[in-house]
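sanity check this record:
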Amino acid sequence: MDFSKNDFVAVGDNDKRESFENVTLGECDEIKIGMQVKSEEETYNLYNQYALKRGFSIRKAVKREYNGVIRQREFVCSKQGFKEFEDPSNVKKYYNLDVRTGCRARIRFDVKNDIWKFATPEERCNLRSGRKVLPAHGNIISTMVSSGIKATKSYSFLSKELGGANNVGFSRRDCHNFVQTKRKEIMEAGDGQSIINHFKEKQSEDPMFFYSVQVDQDNRIANFFWRDGRSKLDYDSFGDVVIFDTTYRTNKYNLICAPFVGINHHWNNVLFGCAFLSNETTQSFIWLFETFLTAMGGRQPKSIFTDQDQAMANAINMVFSESRHRLCLWHISKNAQKNLVGIYGVPDFNQRFNHCLYGGCLNETEFESTWSKMIEMHNLKDNTWLNRLYQIREKWCPTFNLDFFSAKMKSIQRSESTNSVFHQIMKTSMSLIEVIKFYEEKAAQMRQDEINEDFRCKNCAPGKVHKHGGILSHAAKVYTLALFGMFEEEFDSGMGLNCVETNHSEDNFTYSLSSGESRRIHIVHFNRAELSICCDCKLFETLGLLCCHALRVFLVNNVNNIPDKYISSRWTKDAKKRLCCSVDSFKSNEKSTHVLRMSNLSLLWYKCCDMAALSDHGTKIAMDSLSELLCKLEKSSGDTNKMEDIDQSLIRHM
């Protein structure tokens, strides 16, 4: 009988006990899982009777003790192992016969509270030699996983269908390993090579194209990330807020499709890059985030939004140390529906919950009061999901993040719009190359939408601007149409506010603002000399757009233009016309390297070529300017002063 070293484990004290103190040779036909004995002698006799019945003898082997108390005892076949090598120079008068043949028959008892025990039926899934994923079960798991169901949920389904985990025949970890093995079998070398070939082709077309691949121990592709040159330019302009989503999976390979998404100056989604991951471990996320930072020149976002995943949170803390980690409210709202069955949908609960979730609370004190009343009124003190959510409230509640820019990411429509794009990946059985090309097509559509919006901003003007003039007219000139619409909404809301001056000291004024519909009062501090303003609602800090309270105070003080410091360039029509690099970054210093200078120059060239290629006229201008610049570079090679003049010429051409 061949038992592995770890076949038997300890069980609880309340298991049914069967004694074999007086067992006879004829009675011990088999050793049953769940048997218990009460002494080492009884244990030896039991296994010895079993062995003699089958024609082999046994001997005592490993004994593990702790403070003189036996914890484990192993008995093995007398032919277990092999005889130790003897030095031939040691001549003996008599030699014993070598009976060791390496027999693996063994048994191990775990001892607890003087009870010697085998594993119970419930622990069979922990016995290594008895664990196996049967073909029928494997087919069920594969079918469920290919439909987008996680391996853990597939295992839970089998457990219920078979009447408990002890009847499945393998562990949850075995299920996960089975899925990983099947995935590796599907990811043939040809598929991986086609991905690499595609990326290399893209790199030959786009010098700023970036990709990175991580392989497993079998040299198969495990994780990969890519982004094109346009994504780098978009990140330079709008990379202050990043949404990272791992809810999309490919049907054919069950790989995780993880796009990095941002918000452009037209309030539309913009793609910064995409990754495919074989698992959701901390190590995989660390590799991906470090790769992403490398691709984006080391610049970290101000805020990064993700779903609620501990492995991801660990990686973000390690890699994005300068970023504020926020949880996507869309995912929390969806999870609330699943975890609060019977209570989610009750009007009073939903009102208070959404008030906390979407930033209706003006300060932390109001949040705590609202949350406590919600828990008390609906008797939810022992609700595990809500308690966990409360413990990480700083990551999802806007009230705790009013001093940090987040583009006011509380609207679930943004995640839903991304979901509508990538959800198609989960519904089809695309190959990896097809998925990558699908992503590239969606990115091209988004960029065409941006071009269309740019055209509208250049050739269209809001109709109400001439009526009001002043600060509203100025906003129409600098902001895109989408952001002007948001600015106009704030302006109109401010028109109906009661504005009362409550304090005045030289050029410093304090105002109290309220509306007839609400008893809430907002405080605004304004310096007339410096045209600096601050409101306790913190809209400008979180969104980069002046709030209705500040605009009302500006109107009272006849401020007809938005001060430059309150115009966030990321929301303007010229958001992408800013230089990607300052002039100083081209100047040589101790830390500069050839690679860094190449990166800076490539970024600027790409922007120049991207704009020039829009028309024949632009292409001609770029070609003439670059030819002239090349001549200057050839003539001035090695002359530092002249090279600095060329730097300035380069910037002027941009």
The chain has a mean pLDDT of 79. The longest strand covers residues 518-527. The first helix runs from residue 40 to 54. Residues 238 and 264 are 6 Å apart (CA to CA).
